[in-house]
Amino acid sequence: MKRKLKFYDYYMVFLGVLVALPILAPVLLKLAEAAPILHLPANIIYLIYSFTCHQFSSRSLHLFDYQYAWCARDTGIWLGVFLAAVFVKKYKAIKWYWMLPFIVPIALDGGIQTVATVLGVNPTGIVGEPFYISSNLMRFLTGSLFGIGLSMWISPFLLSEGNASSSQLSASSPQLFVTGLQRLLSQLAEAVRAPILLWGMCFIFFLGAVQLWNLTSTTNRPSDFLDSAVKTPLNDFYTRREDGPCPAGIDDLVRINCFFGGE
């Protein structure tokens, strides 16, 4: 007898597709070199994700010299959300206030970079040297940590709602022989273990993605084996999707030939 699909199953499919499509886009562009019709699905993916991401080439991972359809930080965020959702039964839901340790790193890294960018960039390029620009490694790590925390807060709730059960949200009864301090340390260790393991999985993905990028690309390559160098474009700072199929913005909608690989 087939198992009936539940809400959480659809949620997992949605997350899986959401994470896979930006990585599929550069693969489609590579295949389009032999089969031009594949420009169409690739460019549609880039267009859809352009509404949620700046798609700056220097802040994105690449495959076959083409950038992902979203940046390194977004890749980390949604990979973290997806992995924490996959292993949702391996940990207990965190309270909303435990989101703070997951938010602070991305807020500092992204926030300081945004301020530095606004102060140091004009439409023609960099003016002076911004006092802080992040690297793709830091963008991915802070993004994935945030995504893990967000999913550890939300995914158990979605699972319990879909299964009409709140077992994932209930806390275990304290042991009578354990002191308050011991209980606190035990709960803290349990709360820390899952994010560390999930974060480690994200890092392994990033390491593999950078090595694959290096192996498949000849022009646009990572700065090192972790793509950890700071990249500061001197010209055309606001050019989006430089290593993608066509210009971002309104041109996507009015230049239909761009969807088929034209200029």
From TrEMBL:
InterPro entries per record: DUF2085_TM
Would I find Plastid among this entry's keywords? no
Q: Which residues form a coiled coil?
A: none
Keyword field: Membrane, Transmembrane, Transmembrane helix
| Record flagged with keyword Metal-binding | no
Which residue ranges does UniProt annotate as crossing the membrane?
67-88, 100-120, 140-159, 191-213
Its taxonomic path starts at: Bacteria, Candidatus Dojkabacteria
What protein is this chain from? DUF2085 domain-containing protein
